[in-house]
Amino acid sequence: MNQLLLVEDDASIRESLVDFFRGRDWLVHPCADLHAATQAIAHQRFHMILLDLRLPDGDGLDVLRTLRKSGNKTPVIVLTARGEVAQRVLGLQLGADDYVVKPFSVHELAARMQAVQRRADQPTTSVRLGDAEVDVAGHCGRRGEVVFRLLPKEADLLAHLLRHRGQAQTRDDLLRAVWGYDATPTTRTVDTHVFQLRQKIEADPAHPQLLLTVHGVGYRLCE
Q1: Average pLDDT, the chain
Q2: Where does the pLDDT of residue 194 fall: very low under 50, low under 70, confident under 90, or very high at 90 and above?
Q3: With contact defined as beta carbons under 8 Å apart, do 97 and 122 qualify?
Q4: CB contact set of 11 (below 8 Å; sequence gap of 6+)
């Protein structure tokens, strides 16, 4: 389940967005002010942030500044009122990924979120996993002198695990993310692809150190 931080002081907007995204693969964490948002970011990892700029205890741009200065690349969409052109421009300059002007359609907001998420989800061209160097986009890699190929779903599975590195992912999470809601594969399919990935990236696939089983949950790619 994707974690969404919603920072919005208008109770009606906040509640309508919580209602809209409930059941749409987002777990919404609503905040009404700068202090609550800062505390949430300090204690929780989010996949996206919807950030109102005018908050009762400060400027939402302060949240954005702090995020980017710390190297946090969580996608941020700023929510602005009509006429706040300078604020929107500054937000983009500070590292916001997009903006939506109030009043807005929740369907347009959802579409913009999907577009931002797709851009953020592009896998790193080359990533180091233990003693393996993997080109996820190129569906290939090397471990020592051994060169290997990644099947398309192996690459998609690894890309998803990389995006959620350090976080346990259930088999159902992986099925939805990699095979889609309407897919026919079972959770056994996930196990098979994890087994195949381990044969390629692990030094000792029988005793994995990178792609770990989280008993009773699913799998986790180590930080």
Answers
A1: 88
A2: very high
A3: no
A4: 32
The DSSP code for 218 is E
Answer whether residue 86 shows pLDDT above 70. yes
97 is written with which tokens? 């990924």
Helix residue spans in the chain (DSSP H) = 11-21, 34-43, 60-69, 85-94, 106-120, 152-163, 171-174, 187-201
Token duo for residue 84 = 């706040």
What is the C-alpha R_g of the chain? 20
Give me the residues paired with residue 133 across strands: 128, 142
Cα separation, 25 vs 106, in Å, equals 15
Residue 71 three-state SS: coil
Tally of CA atoms within 13 A in the half-sphere of 72 that contains its CB: 19
pTM above 0.85, yes or no: no
CA angle 44, 45, 49 (to 5 degrees): 100
